[in-house]
Amino acid sequence: MLDGDTVFNSRLLTELTLSFHIIYATIGVGVPLMIMIAQWVGIKKNDEHYILLARRWARGFVITVAVGVVTGTAIGLQLSLLWPKFMELAGNVIALPLFMEVFAFFFEAIFLGIYLYTWDRFEDQRKHLALLIPVAIGAGLSAVFITMVNSFMNAPQGFDLVNGELINVNPFLAMFTPAMPTKVSHVVATAFMTAAFLLASIAAFKLVRGSNHAYHKKALFMTMKIGLIFSIATALIGDFSGKYLAEYQPEKLAAAEWHFDTSEQAPLLMYGILDGEEVKYALEIPFALSILAHGDPSAEVIGLDQFPEDETPPMAVHYLFDIMVTIGVWMILLSLVYWVGTKRKWAFINTKPFLWLLALGGPLSIIAIEAGWWMAELGRQPWILRGIMRTSEAATSSSHVDTMLLLFAGIYLILGIGTVVVLRRMFKKNPVEKELMEKGGEET
Amino acid sequence: MSLEILGIMVLWTFLFGYVIVASIDFGAGFFNAYSELTGKQHILTKIIQRYLSPVWEVTNVFLVFFFVGIVGFFPKTAFYYGTTLLVPVSIAILLLAVRGSYYAFETYGTKGHKGYALMYGLTGLVLPASLSIVLTISEGGFVSMTEGKPVLDYWALFTSPLTWSIVVLSIIAVLYISSVFLTWYASKAKDTKATDLMRKYALIWALPTIITACGIIYELSFHNQEHFDRIIDLWWMFGLSFLLFIGTVWLIWKRKNYGLAFGLLVGQFAFAFFGYGLSHYPYLLYPHLTIYDSFTNEAMAISLVVAFVLGLALLLPSLYLLMRLFLFNKDYVKGSQKNKA
């Protein structure tokens, strides 16, 4: 049906599922914390606005969780369906965090069900809030465990391969790879950051559309503040990720930076295009790559010349790196300006153009997440398990991947549209003003 | 008990849990849609929605647990089943995706949309059919090894009477399990009309369940003699299962103690399911794969078991809380509490 071989189609299908799932997964990890903070602030300040914020977020959150669950099930099964050889090996070495992820999610699912159906059931609101803690912990741990598996793919350890036989398997070493600390913290921090900016987008959009309600202003200020904190954290962790890559996956860093020749005092290239091995129109930041890689402006950074050609990732990862970093830095600046501006009462932060920028922040953060994951996955090629198993060796031998690719593309399209339609309808039919009136008769 | 046996017991138990909770869920969806079509939705919909709403997510996790667990304990299954099941399992994923998300769309989003309800009901019947294909394939005869790689013979699979009898059983069992449970649930909610209707469905689907189950054992005698012989060796398990079946039907017929009736039904299916599992031993896929030659290394097996015990210590109290708050909470079951977000 489609051109291309099974390996290529398997990669496309995996990429498609992951790209779609990661949107929902990010929301799933990040939003519970936001709901918790809003409800907590609401209880502490005895402010109905924040409580309602938590309640409305929770209501929308369920829709995204549902799609997250089914796409998560899809990727879980597709790993075995599309990469049977890889999963056979992975099952032997890295099955433990996969297994624990299911428990974490189970835990989360149970308490989410309880939390959703026990609003107003408790005299003391704090008891209800307490039910959200396992949801947030479960969601966070799911991300931690799954990212551990991805870290293992980047820096496999905890076993020996002797004549094709797996020996000396140590599941704990496999979980705690050198890639783990930076990867896990990066994923969790960006999930919080993206969730905050997404919710900020909604509030900003309402304000752009002419609402002047304190509810949206409070929501915007709170989420932008949280977003600022986590975007700064993300940048710091990103710096550590650079140092990890330089040490353990230098080819990935070199490809992302178009750093062809091993050299000292290496500059960081941003943007630009590639013509053969010649970089054009790039912005060069002197010494920055050496600093990113080793924290020392004169340090030597390994270039692509140290690797055989069939073991280097595609050069396009540079663009993905640029997108990710640019958006990340932009969001720090934007939220910082907004925060300082609010404190100092700068007038322009309430103007429509600026609010538009805030409203775009959420979608941009999602794009950054996508770019980051594509970079992580493409940057590991040609390996599925770096240095041990090539992606092409791991793929299925089944001949129906192309058809499945089309089927899944169709279903994701339907689910994506469905999510947007249902969420819009849900909140349009039940606007904030109306709900506040019903709750306490407060004027709008 | 060896680690291999322990591993497969744990997984088989979770799969059994999935069979029961998913059957309730699948069947409930079907009865809900059916009542929409026949204009009886006022009788059933509320009861069904009230049961499904807080638990639907939990149902799915049982399945995920099983397939993640089997790759962990028996990594070679990823190679054999992963390669051969691409099409049937992908279809099952698609159905689960439609079902899960549209359920949430309808429950939390747009209420009372007929299309969602129908979709939910229809997928509930197709899903058990597509999932049960895996059991058929495990009986062997449909997978051959070509150049060291397993290949599924679709033609043989779809023309085999065994395939279709398992498909039919899976659908009928779903309807039977679900109707017995909902009879009990409706009677707890003191909803006489719904109870009577579900009781009627339960009685309708009782006999076909037993007939198709016996049919499968008969089919198996032609398809997989070895497995059939082992089933006959374990005749007492299937005999006990049958006695429990009689008990359930009798209680429902006499309108007595629906809770016990459902308990007996779980027992009936437990004996049949574990009897089937035991007789399948040691094969995971006839004749290519046994639990012994596919087992993971000892270090991984022990850590999985430890993780499992710790996880269970966390989950069982939480599940108990969920059940106490919703399934066994009188006010909630009767619908006198409205605490939705």
Give the tags.
heterodimer, A: 444 residues, mainly alpha, two-stranded antiparallel sheet, 16 helices, 6% strand, globular, B: 341 residues, two-stranded antiparallel ribbon, 13 helices, 4% strand, membrane (chain A), EC 1.10.3.- (chain A), transport (chain A), transmembrane helix (chain A)
Describe this protein's structure:
Chain B: Keywords: Cell membrane, Membrane, Oxidoreductase, Transmembrane, Transmembrane helix. Chain B: One of its GO terms (molecular function) is oxidoreductase activity. Chain B: It is an enzyme of class 1 (oxidoreductase). Chain B: InterPro entries: Cyt-d_oxidase_su2 (IPR003317). The complex is a heterodimer of chains A (444) and B (341). Chain A has 444 residues and is mainly alpha-helical. Chain A folds into two domains: 1-179 and 397-433, no CATH class; 195-248 and 250-379, no CATH class. Chain A is 71% helix and 6% strand. In chain A, a hairpin with a 2-residue loop joins strand 1 (160-162) and strand 2 (165-167). Chain A starts with 5 loop residues before the first helix and ends with a helix. The relative contact order of chain A is 0.13. The model of chain A has no long low-confidence stretch (mean pLDDT 89). Chain B is mostly helical and 341 residues long. Chain B has one domain. Chain B has 13 helices and four strands. Chain B has a two-stranded antiparallel sheet with strand order 1-2. In chain B, strands 3-4 form a two-stranded antiparallel ribbon. In chain B, a hairpin with a 3-residue loop joins strand 3 and strand 4. In chain B, helix 9 (225-233) crosses helix 11. The longest helix of chain B has 35 residues, at 3-37.
